[in-house]
Design brief:
Elements: H1 3-13, E1 18-21, H2 28-36, E2 41-44, H3 48-62, E3 66-71, H4 72-88, E4 93-99, H5 115-119, E5 125-128, H6 135-147, E6 153-159, H7 160-164, H8 184-195, E7 200-204, H9 211-224, E8 227-230, E9 237-239, E10 247-248, H10 253-260, E11 265-269, E12 293-298, H11 304-315, H12 339-349, E13 354-359, H13 364-369, E14 377-381, H14 390-400, E15 406-411, H15 412-415, H16 421-428, E16 432-438, H17 443-451, H18 459-463, H19 474-480, E17 484-488, H20 491-503, E18 508-513
The structure holds thiamine diphosphate (TPP).
The site of thiamine diphosphate has 18 residues, from helix 15 and helix 17.
């Protein structure tokens, strides 16, 4: 058995079942090993950002890591924006990055770079295997590091000779760190704050936004009068009819400040204290008001659900919390497709148990409002604000959960970063319906230009934010990659296309001309 084979077998026996890959010459032994050992599904992405974004989507829905396989420093660099999003989602991820053979490095061949230097800013754990006999132990350590709470990015660099030389065999997974219990003082401190009757907000992130966490938070809210609020962008929120409903802290600074203006206490539950995404002249960076005290119930890596259970008990919270009623969303009158009208159609038709990927950007709010009382679903967001993750994220989620319909709410500008993921969806036969929100512009940036008060945009500035010269043919792009696609220009057409997409078992793209 060579080093690459020992690694594939180690990963597979540690429960890493899927590898999202874009390999090169230095990874050929790993690729060959896939046929010989272990039982690993290997999924080709035609750009590294597809592989890393799909690994993120997979792990968010499978609650365990996938691996990626990337080609030296440049391959890793191409995938990093979505590694950044994964890290901000606390996603467990194992990146395997091939490198030149150890003795070849001295010659500074064209693909040589400082791979560790590329990896570190976006990884929590980085190691370069010294030789073929260390590879399996390093691989097992990478999986354990990735699975450590709250979920981390581990990057293992694999010199080509460590892949092809003789190894001793696979290595067992070392003990994986568990979630640390929250100290009792943190629970009693927060209980005291909530008993004071002063206006309090429970600010939720991570597993607090899964159904059980939300139910507990809802019970605590009933007892204490505290308000529930989620972080603006989250890895996975279980929402919809029958679940405790939650509002999200708005993205625009003024609205976020207004949302928190009355709070006297902000209780962090698996979240971090909210700050503005960007600085704006004359606006604060910190979003909670000066008179508001911050308290921590649980860090993202602690036992968040256990802490909520203990807090509910300490407060004597009732056994049940009110849940969201099912809602239907009558579309606004008129034939034109607007984000609001499209959202109403989707909110009414959304199938139970769907996974909704939200890279809708300027249309996101319309969809969030009109899916609040839709059938129960999971929502995955762009946690790190680096656009170009939606199509890959949906791809990975569909591989993790073939039993569920995946709906990708996809803004057109963001889609263009990683549209190759449609090809992977076709090749793997994935059940993903993409609503391509075709507004032919970087609408959010136009809003941001106005937010900065930078004056009216002239032709040159507008050219940086408009995508209609030439217009993109989304139906043609999707079909050329093997994905069925249709254009919807009217609401009637959209209803028809949605019905077709939702009943299809393979990938389907609806080009929504907004
Ligand atoms: C990796 C990355 N590059 C650039 C940006 C800056 N950016 C933010 S929004 C945006 C435009 C988004 O346009 P689109 O996806 O079409 O959505 P719309 O705003 O039109 O709803 C850009 C370029 C970013 N957030 N991340």
């Amino acid at each position: 058995m060579n080093g690459a084979e020992s690694l594939v077998e180690t990963l597979a026996s540690a429960g890493v079942e899927v590898c999202f890959a874009n390999p090169g010459t230095s990874e050929m032994h790993f690729v060959a090993a896939l046929d010989r050992v272990g039982d690993m599904r290997c999924v080709l992405g035609l750009f590294e950002g597809v592989a890393t974004g799909a690994a993120d989507g997979y792990a968010r829905m499978a609650d365990k890591p996938a691996s990626t396989l990337l080609h030296l420093g440049p391959g890793l660099a191409n995938g990093l924006a979505n590694v950044h999003n994964a890290r901000r989602a606390n996603t467990p991820m194992v990146n395997i990055v091939g490198d030149h053979a150890t003795y070849h490095k001295q010659y500074d061949a064209p693909l040589t770079s400082d791979v560790e230097g590329v990896a570190w800013p976006f990884s929590d754990w980085v190691r370069t295997s010294a030789d073929s006999r260390s590879v399996s132990r390093d691989g097992a350590a990478a999986v354990a590091a990735a699975m450590a709470p709250p979920g981390r990015v581990a990057t293992l660099i694999l010199p080509a000779d460590a892949s092809w030389n003789e190894a001793d065999g696979p290595a067992p997974l070392p003990p994986v760190e568990g979630r640390a219990p929250v100290p009792p003082e943190a629970i009693s401190d927060v209980a005291r704050v909530l008993r004071s009757g002063e206006p309090a907000v429970l600010f939720l992130g991570g597993h607090a936004l899964r159904e059980l966490g939300l139910t507990l938070a809802g019970r605590i809210a009933v007892k204490s009068g505290a308000r529930l609020l989620a972080q603006t962008l989250n890895a996975r929120v279980e929402r919809g009819a029958g679940r405790v409903a939650i509002d999200f802290l708005p993205y625009p600074v003024d609205e976020a400040i207004a949302t928190l203006a009355d709070a006297r206490h902000l209780v962090l539950v698996g979240s971090e204290a909210p700050v503005a995404f960007f600085a704006y002249p004359d606006k604060p960076s910190v979003l909670n008001p000066p008179q508001c005290e911050t308290h921590r119930l649980a860090t993202p890596g602690e036992d968040i659900v256990g802490a909520l259970e203990a807090l509910a008990e300490e407060l004597g919270a009732p056994q049940n919390a009110p849940v969201q009623a099912p809602e239907k969303y009558p579309p606004p009158s008129g034939e034109a497709i607007t984000p609001e009208a499209a959202a109403a159609a989707l909110g009414t038709l959304l199938p139970e148990g769907a996974v909704v990927v939200d890279e809708a950007l300027s249309a996101a709010r319309a969809f969030m409002l009109r899916t609040r009382g839709a059938a129960a679903h999971d929502c995955l967001q762009v946690t790190g604000g680096a656009i170009g993750i939606g199509v890959p994220l949906a791809t990975g989620a569909a591989i993790a959960r073939p039993d569920r319909k995946v709906i990708c709410l996809q803004a057109d500008g963001s889609a263009m970063y990683t549209l190759q993921a449609l090809w992977t969806q076709a090749r793997e036969g994935l059940d993903v319906t993409t609503l391509l929100l075709n507004n032919r512009s970087y609408a959010l940036l136009k809003q941001e230009l106005a937010n900065f008060g930078a004056g009216d945009a002239g032709r040159r500035a507008l050219d940086m934010m408009e995508l209609d010269r030439p217009a993109l043919d989304w139906v043609g792009l999707a079909r050329s990659m093997g994905v069925e696609a249709e254009r919807a220009k009217t609401m009637e057409g959209l209803d028809r296309q949605l019905a077709a997409g939702l009943s299809s078992e393979g990938p389907y793209l609806i080009d929504l001309k907004l």
